[in-house]
Amino acid sequence: MKKIIWIYLIFVSQLFFAQQNNQLWKGYFSYNEIVDVESATDKVFAATQNAVFSKALLSSDLTIYNSINGLKPESITTIHHSELTNKTFVGNTNGLLLIINSDGSITTKVDIINEVPVPPNKKKINDFYEHNGRLYISTDYGISVVDVATSEFIITYFIGTSGEETQVLQTTVLGNEIYAVTRDFGIRKGNLTNPNLYDFSQWQTFDGGYWSGIVTFNNELIGMNTNARTYRYNGTVFQEILNHIQAGLKIKTNGTELIVTTSNHVYVLNQTFTQLANITSIPNFNAVFTAATVVGTKLYIGTEKDGLFSTDITNPTVFENMSPNGPVRNYIFRVKKALNYLWAVYGDYTRQYNPYPLEEYGISKYSKDDGWELIPYNDIFQAKSICDLVINPNNQTQIYATSYFSGLLKIQGGTIELFNQANTGPNGLESLVLTPPNPTYIDVRVNSPAFDKDGNLWMTNAFVERAIKVLNANGQWQSYSLDGIAPTVATGRYGPMAIDKNKTKWIPSINDGLIAFNENYNNKFIVLNSTTGNLPDNDVRCVAVDNRNQLWIGTYSGLRVVSVDRFITETELTANSIIIQEGDLAQELFYQQTILDIAVDGANRKWVSIADGGVFLVSANGQQTNYQFTKNNSPLPSNNINDIEIDGVSGEVFFATDKGMVSFLGTSTKPSDDLANVYVYPNPVRPEFLGTVKISGLTDKANVKITDIEGNLVHETTTSGGTIEWDTTAFGKYKVASGVYMIFVASEDGMDSTVKKVMIIR
């Protein structure tokens, strides 16, 4: 698209987002992957890569900051809470500085990103240290200084021995001297009373060794060395106070205790350097530690995958998980909505369908009543890299999950089965064969699960000739060969398939275009590729059948559309691009864009995920763009959306990204069969509400008229799907006044009707 079009779309989306004030968004984040922990007088703070949460010690009140309420990090590296100003500072890998103010508002500082003259990959924030109203920010280029009260940048120090940038890992102050642990030049120091400290020559090398952290504790310098030991400086030399065996990750102090964290140890020392605690494990968890701190008598430990834990220093035997409820991790690869549960899996693969390193995260499910629950890895026969899910449409309690290493899982209640090459017979699942063969290596790569209308479960099996598999409703397995159909069948890999009303299977492949197959027409195959099918690329990433039997095809380099009914009568298929008109310009929709996923809502609109481009909502025919949501103009935590899932009942649209999952509460509901259950929300509409009124439970093509109490028409529309929105204006011109408004609904044929009311309070 032309630049002017993108600017327009972004402007419209930003305007919409501002108007909605995030009321239409929900967050489904994980709080298990802790990167830093910070103490305060009466609470503890913890950070994941994309969120910060705090817990009050006395009341246990939990406060969460994420993209839904305005905290939009790149990737969090460290945090600091200022008792002086009640602000929390959040550092990122790209130099972005976020500040959670005392009133809960978020300030975004891009000074490091925009103004510090070093390459972007050298702007990572490593640590914060507060002294005399100033915040010293250790970065990959040097030290930047911020006024804690005003949040304004003051100065930057480049402290390499020749004035070059150097990685500063941590700073501290003792007396008037500031000490900085660097990656390349040992510990450098300077005098804070020196007005010329910006001059690198005013800095000295205090110690030329290899250090990873430094704090001031009990009026002494404490240094953590790369030799897995921690030392105190006695005024003359460094003396060892702790051998922590492993490389130190974090060294912290709350003033009365010293805390050293390694991947498998958390040490707590008092002011005489007596060891108060040495935590090596957390019961029932194979925890890897990342950071720790002490508040009062409580020790708080952050872990790599299991969340934040607390225990008592004097008796560290009982551990409490402090993390908010959420999925296991933020990188969700696929999500599916059942009647009562939302299911999520984490076993991703690369563009080349490489699942390594293999994931061992289990399967998560969410309900409004119970929150997030986990089916652990050990309970699913240690099946690795679970990459997709499908829900049996005839039995919503029956879930199938595909593993891109271990086969197929069936989950129903408390019963779980694993299908693989060993128990599915000669026509079932197969392991790939190595060259040269290794009979002890078993690798069953299953993907693309989809049910047809007869209750048969279809899937693909990568790297084998008989790549199309089906578990029939009668429990029998069957295979279909792609030999002679797909030129690269020996290394064939396949994306999520779609099955249309005619039971034709549309299977994306990485090298061979789009494979269409229907066993009911004498095992008929048609292949669409860049040579014969007008595809822009032979790497097809996703497909979706819409409500008018059009197949939308997302490839690595653009979009195509074809009618599914043509498969029945034709022997070759050619897909079409969608041409949109913008002024005098005609252009192809999503030209040369990598399309990650396509989902069709109840109004036949399409949600389209673009690699590093966020998500678009386009009209049924693709001619209009309703929204474009990106990380910049919405609560999306990332512009890479792995999967889009729509709850056809509520209209909630789920976006599973590589940095967390959020949802948008839109109007993408399926039409109802009658008007018996029409409802209006919110009702009443109060002055503080900034969103739109939703009228749901509608039939398709119903006529909706809204009038004031005197019968004056203020809005009229025809439905497409099961829900409409009203912006509470009179035909878009001005906001209607306070009062009761009548909503008259009639079906397309006029045989069914209903009347509802809505109260608006200005």
From TrEMBL:
Keyword field: Signal
Family matches, as InterPro entries: PorZ_N, Reg_prop, Secre_tail, WD40/YVTN_repeat-like_dom_sf
Transmembrane annotation, as ranges: none
UniProt keyword Hydrolase present: no
Ranges of residues in domain PorZ N-terminal beta-propeller: 44-204
Any Pfam family matching the protein: Reg_prop
Identification of the protein by name: T9SS type A sorting domain-containing protein
Lineage of source species: Bacteria, Pseudomonadati, Bacteroidota, Flavobacteriia, Flavobacteriales
